[in-house]
């Protein structure tokens, strides 16, 4: 599976700062200082509908991570998956009378278009669940042979009790885990499971549903969590720098994935930091496909909204905050974009070296994009009020906003 084209990232004078970021697992801020190559895995979409603003906010957060690392003169090895076979996709395809593979391909293509328009830097490896199946099957077999997985009526489940670190990502109690498991794709009430929280690794073939050769597992398809584990271990190995996604993935997805990987390898932790973006609401409720209260990026683009304004709307909220999308949020972003473009269109201006460092400092401090925007706003206000005579300043500001915030002026 291919990703989307990369926009050029301008080089800035000097060097960026190491990233300090909130780690869900330790419940505090840690400083990440990767080697020459920083490694990040971000969980991708289940492509049964178009990219909504909640998706865009999540991928914007991890795009900022990449940009901070690139500014430190590191390379970035970024991996993202596509869950191109799963119950929600199959259910939507059946409901609408579509072939599930065509639905997945169409929505993945639209996602690529949205990411390109928003200037999100693409992953080096963009891997679908279906293409990962040959690598998933041996991992499930290894877990089963090690006694960390068991058979239940042909399905294979992971035993959470096989990982002594289980619970160390989410820090939830058993009842909270049970409730979230039921809400987010698990089956805690299924009879015969050793532990209600045990997640499925391999689902035996069901009538009328797609299935693949699972070797000794029989025909079937993979569970959600082992999919990401197989892709991450194959392309990044253990101990990569960031496991990222929305806050709704903390449990069960990232908790279970960490346990799968740790039992498979005997190493701990799977990732140095577990980083999660907040949820975006519309009309007082979390924006989600199940509720149908969605604002689609593609629809905004078709209505004539500049993608740079959409990106500025996302940047105006801290990535970990839960916030609400409103017309006012977008209107403020459109106005801000116009001011910024007017300021950098002048032939000269106020010196901007200090601004570059302000933006770097804000983003290195747990991706504080609102503080970065405020710094640019201050320069813009002075620039529009009279400015200075530094001919290089407007260009430097434009390159800084592009390189670090992903906004083309």
Keywords:
about 400 residues, alpha/beta, 4-stranded antiparallel beta sheet, 13 helices, globular
Architecture overview:
- The chain is α/β, with parallel strands linked by helices and 409 residues long.
- 43% of the residues lie in helices and 16% in strands.
- It is built from 13 helices and 14 strands.
- It has helices at residues 53-71, 87-96, 100-117, 129-145, 174-183, 224-235, 250-265, 297-302, 307-315, 327-344, 353-364, 369-385, 393-405; strands at residues 19-23, 28-32, 37-42, 75-82, 125-128, 149-152, 155-158, 200-204, 220-222, 240-246, 271-277, 280-282, 285-286, 323-324.
- It has a five-stranded parallel sheet, with helices on both faces. Strands 6-7-8-9 form a four-stranded antiparallel sheet.
- Strand 3, helix 1 and strand 4 (75-82) form a beta-alpha-beta unit.
- Helix 11 packs antiparallel against helix 12 (369-385).
- The radius of gyration is 22 Å and the shape is globular.
- 47% of the residues are buried.
- The model has no long low-confidence stretch (mean pLDDT 97).
Outline of the structure:
The protein has helices at 53-71, 87-96, 100-117, 129-145, 174-183, 224-235, 250-265, 297-302, 307-315, 327-344, 353-364, 369-385, 393-405; strands at residues 19-23, 28-32, 37-42, 75-82, 125-128, 149-152, 155-158, 200-204, 220-222, 240-246, 271-277, 280-282, 285-286, 323-324. It is an alpha/beta fold.
């Amino acid at each position: 599976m291919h990703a989307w084209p990369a926009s050029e990232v301008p080089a800035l004078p000097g060097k960026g700062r190491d990233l300090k970021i909130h780690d869900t697992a330790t419940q505090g801020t840690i400083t990440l200082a990767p080697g020459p190559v920083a490694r990040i895995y971000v969980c991708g979409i289940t492509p049964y509908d178009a990219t909504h603003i909640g998706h865009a906010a999540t991928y914007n957060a991890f795009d900022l991570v990449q940009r901070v690392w690139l500014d430190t003169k590191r390379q970035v090895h970024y991996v993202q998956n596509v869950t191109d076979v799963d119950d929600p996709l199959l259910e939507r395809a059946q409901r609408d009378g579509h072939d599930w593979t065509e639905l997945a391909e169409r929505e993945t293509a639209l996602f690529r278009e949205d990411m390109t328009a928003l200037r999100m830097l693409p992953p080096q490896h963009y891997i679908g669940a279906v293409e990962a199946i040959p690598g998933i099957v041996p991992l499930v077999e290894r877990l089963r042979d090690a006694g960390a997985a068991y058979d239940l009526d042909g399905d294979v489940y992971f035993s959470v009790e096989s990982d002594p670190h289980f619970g160390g990502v989410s820090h939830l109690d058993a009842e909270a885990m049970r409730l979230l498991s039921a809400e987010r794709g698990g089956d805690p009430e299924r009879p015969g499971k050793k532990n209600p929280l045990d997640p499925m690794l391999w689902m035996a073939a069901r009538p009328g549903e797609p299935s693949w050769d699972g070797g000794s597992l029989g025909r079937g398809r993979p569970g959600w969590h082992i999919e990401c584990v197989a892709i991450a271990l194959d392309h990044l190995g253990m101990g990569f720098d960031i496991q990222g996604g929305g806050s709704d993935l903390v449990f069960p997805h990232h908790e279970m994935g960490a346990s799968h990987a740790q039992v498979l390898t005997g190493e701990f932790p799977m990732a140095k930091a577990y980083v999660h973006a907040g949820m975006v609401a519309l009309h007082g409720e979390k924006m989600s496909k199940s509720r149908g209260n969605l604002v689609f990026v593609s629809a905004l683009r078709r209505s004539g909204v500049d993608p740079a304004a959409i990106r500025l709307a996302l940047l105006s909220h801290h990535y970990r905050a839960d916030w609400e999308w409103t017309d006012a949020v977008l209107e403020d972003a459109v106005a801000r974009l116009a001011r910024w473009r007017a300021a950098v269109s002048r032939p000269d201006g106020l010196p901007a070296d200090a601004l570059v460092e302000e933006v770097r400092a804000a983003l290195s401090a747990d991706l504080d994009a609102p503080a970065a925007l405020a710094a640019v706003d201050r320069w813009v206000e002075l620039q529009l009020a009279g400015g200075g005579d530094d001919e290089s300043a407007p260009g430097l500001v434009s390159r800084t906003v592009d390189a670090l915030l992903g906004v083309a002026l």
